[in-house]
Amino acid sequence: MVSTEEKLADLKTRLQEVGDLEGANAVLGWDQSTYMPNGGADARGRQMATLGRLAQEKFTDMAVGHLLDDLQSYAASLPYDHDDAALIRATQRRYVRDTQIPAAFLAQKYEHASKTYQVWAEARPANDFKRVQPYLEKTLELSQQTAEYFSGYEHIADPLIDFADYGMRASRVRQVFAELRSQLVPLVETITAQPLADDSCLKQHFPEDQQLAFGRKVIERFGYDFNSGRQDKTHHPFMTKLGSGDVRITTRVKPNNFAEAFFSTTHEAGHALYEQGVTPDYAGTPLDGGTSNGVHESQSRTWENLVSRSRGFWQHYYPELQQAFPEQFGSVSLDTFYRAINKVERSLIRTDADEVTYNLHVMVRFELELQMLEGKLAIKDLPEAWHAAYQADLGIRAPNDINGCMQDVHWYSWHIGGVFQAYTLGNILSAQFFSEAVKANPSLPTDIAQGHFAPLHAWLKEHIYQHGSKYTASELVERVTGRGLDIAPYMQYLRGKYGELYQL
User: Fold this and answer.
1) Given 22, 268, 275, 297, which residue is catalytic?
2) pTM of the full predicted structure?
């Protein structure tokens, strides 16, 4: 008779093989987005499809299902917090989900996504939506088909949202967004009625290598380990985990805009700190990674906004920035610079948006996604629908599709639905988690103002990072904050910070 220990070891061996295939696929994806020549797109799509199919087949093998069945009684005998219980629980949840999706279909998605990304990367700078339109139509079809593999959903977007933010539903997202919108819109109206902050100091010439060097120095002090990571350039910044001990980030550099590379660097470093902070014991298992996209985004937004856009942070770093760019910032006061990096305005680009208007950008995308998935919005009509939504929600209209529906990579690199809500959930959770960190360590704002980030990093690692996917997002939020998702700390943060900036 095979013992429980042997069955658990067998399960872990199988999971490691799946993880290795997924890691190899991630390497191919990272290369595609950084260094791959355009001519490699077709072969790369096929390669990624093959690896994706093999990983899916290995993970959904009936032998894995039998092992999970056999291990249920063992898991039930353990305390809920036991690592083995969590592993079996998380693997079972993923197994039930993934067995609904045929491996051949997943391979088709991988291959299509790879081709679509390459077409988008070429079509976007040319403002050629019609070129990518048929690919996006196929993406929508595949996204709808993905959802249809799951029965009993309330809204067609629910299974797609569930992939990214387990337990979240379209109805709940809409509820949270409505609550947030009711408070954000008046705040935006009040602030934008005032004269715009002068951000011309950010829009000078900044040599690329010097921008990257300054950003790397900062995130290294945050705790990002370059021995287990690296930074490269890409069209749309991202973080990727290629395996235990290899967590990479990318950025986009504009020589005439300091904010672009710096804040995308601190943003992606936040994601990377999370992944580098997962306990090594979880390597090669479904526990080895952030628990949800929303929680993941909370960490990128913590380091990008709550830390890197704070006055305290720049009280410490602004003299160093002035030394790095004396011609650009030597005669610019800290107050002027601080107002510039926190300028509130109605803008076109989500990734460049300020904290106050950012979530309105997300809400536009979320509602358009629902309309497309519901069959109420055809892909051919997406550009105009996008422009109309921006006009209605932000009072601004893009002059082209580059800065309209082609600006984000998400729809052109996987599927439509289930991604964008995480950015706003992350914003909310960033303030909720940070407020708990300050309660536990009242000196944190002072630490940040002195360039000491280890206390914050240590608190986040203890309470969030190390757990990986041991707990679901809702379980983790409850453990850390003592309550569920709550917009109050986030709105308190925004009103406090921008109330001071704009004398509200």
Assistant:
1) 268
2) 0.95
Query: Catalytic: 22?
Result: no
With the C-alpha atoms ordered 420, 392, 154, 110, is the resulting torsion angle positive or negative?
Answer: negative
pLDDT digits (tens, 9 = 90+) for 81-92: 999 999 999 999
Q: Which CATH class is domain 170-501?
A: mainly alpha
Q: Is 392 exposed, middle or buried (0-12, 13-18, 19+ CB in 10 A)?
A: exposed
The span from the CA of 73 to the CA of 482, in Å, is 30
Q: Where are the domains of the chain?
A: 4-123, 170-501
CATH code given to domain 4-123: 1.20.58
Q: How many CB atoms lie within 10 A of CB 374?
A: 12
Question: Binning pLDDT at 50, 70 and 90, where does residue 351 land?
Answer: confident
**What beta strand segments (E) does 13-111 contain?**
none
Query: Residue 306 is encoded by which pair of tokens?
Result: 């709550």
Q: What is the pLDDT of residues 245-255, one digit of tens each?
A: 999 999 999 99
119-158 CB burial, b ≥16 within 10 A, e <16: bbbebbeeebbeebbebbebbbebbbebbeeeeebebbbb
Give the total residue count for the chain: 504
Q: CB within 8 A of 59, min separation 6: which ones? A: 14, 15, 18, 94, 95, 98
Q: Check residue 352 and give its pLDDT.
A: 86
**150's tokens:** 């799951």
Express each pLDDT in 163-195 by its tens digit.
999 999 999 999 999 999 999 999 999 999 999
